[in-house]
Structure formats: structure tokens, C-alpha cells
Amino acid sequence: MQPIAQLEGRFDDVDGRYVIVVGRFNHHVVDSLVEGAVDALVRHGVDEANIDLVHVPGGWELPLAVQRALNRLAPDAVVALGAVIRGGTPHFEHIAGQCNAALNRLQLDYDTPIANGVLTVNSIEQAIERAGTKAGNKGFEAAMAAMEMVSLLRQMGGDMPADSYGGEA
């Protein structure tokens, strides 16, 4: 019986071009997410000159800016960051749901990783916890996911059939 080929992203081959698209709304939280994302990329060998920051008003505007970045900047990956905090109206559900669905569609349409670091939380306290206090920094985690996917997709190559990945057993 032949061993099962296994592939997973590594962090030793992640240099490339990264675009971080940032929703400014709730900037007191989002600024920490940006710091975390940039820190993760630089720590793993991405040259700061290969990191672009694109600022948009909020979560609703993220997908359009991500699409334009994919079209014009041709990054290896995009990291989308923002914070959508539940309020007293259904606005939260509309913004969070549509933003997430659009980002997912874009990554599939463009065959390019889009790490979703858009916080969707019930309170400002939860947002602060996820921006670098109790629950870690979700910006850092999103950048890590982006790099891991860049590495994995490089290993998988272009239009290679599934049985010829060349992964190690």
C-alpha cells in the first residue's frame, strides 16, 4: 500500500507580495489588528516593501477594495481586516454576512488566498480581546493563515493533477 501524500503550508517560503485591506471603522480596535498582521509577515521574512496597506471606510467597502487589489496589484495573498460590532439593529448581520460571502467568492474567483481577519463580535470588549489581549491578535492570525496558504498553493502548483503533487509521505 502506497503512503498517503500529505501537503501543508510551511513558513520558510512565504516571501511575496501581500496586500492588507483595512476597514477604518472601529479604528481603535483595527489598528492593533494591522500591527499584528504586519508583525507576522515581517517576522516570517516578508520584505516590508512587499506589503501594501489599503484603507477603506469599513467592512462593507472591503470586498471592492480587495477585488481592485487583486486586479491591479496581483498579490500572492490579501489579508482583510476590520471590526463589525453588533448593535441594536440588524445592520450587523447584513454587513458581516455580505462581507464574508464576498471575500470568500473573491478568493475562489481569483484563486488567491484572502485571509479573513474581520472581527464579527457582540461587544467592544470582545473586539478588544481579539485585537491583542486575552484572545490573541486576530490580525496576526490572519496573516499567518495567508502565508500558510501561499506556501501550500505554491507546493500544489498550477494545473497539476491531484496524484502528482510530489508531496512527502
From TrEMBL:
EC number in record: 2.5.1.78
EC class name: transferase
Entry binding sites for 5-amino-6-(D-ribitylamino)uracil: F25, G59, W60, E61, A83, V84, I85, N116
Active site residues of this protein: H91
Keywords for the protein's UniProt record, in alphabetical order: Riboflavin biosynthesis, Transferase
Top-level lineage group: Bacteria
Single GO MF descriptor: 6,7-dimethyl-8-ribityllumazine synthase activity
Catalytic activity: (2S)-2-hydroxy-3-oxobutyl phosphate + 5-amino-6-(D-ribitylamino)uracil = 6,7-dimethyl-8-(1-D-ribityl)lumazine + phosphate + 2 H2O + H(+)
Binding annotation for (2S)-2-hydroxy-3-oxobutyl phosphate: G88, T89, R130
InterPro entries: LS, LS/RS, LS/RS_sf
Coiled-coil residue windows: none
Pathway per the UniProt entry: Cofactor biosynthesis; riboflavin biosynthesis; riboflavin from 2-hydroxy-3-oxobutyl phosphate and 5-amino-6-(D-ribitylamino)uracil: step 1/2
Function: Catalyzes the formation of 6,7-dimethyl-8-ribityllumazine by condensation of 5-amino-6-(D-ribitylamino)uracil with 3,4-dihydroxy-2-butanone 4-phosphate. This is the penultimate step in the biosynthesis of riboflavin.
Subunit structure: Forms an icosahedral capsid composed of 60 subunits, arranged as a dodecamer of pentamers.
Similarity annotation: Belongs to the DMRL synthase family.
Name assigned to this protein: 6,7-dimethyl-8-ribityllumazine synthase
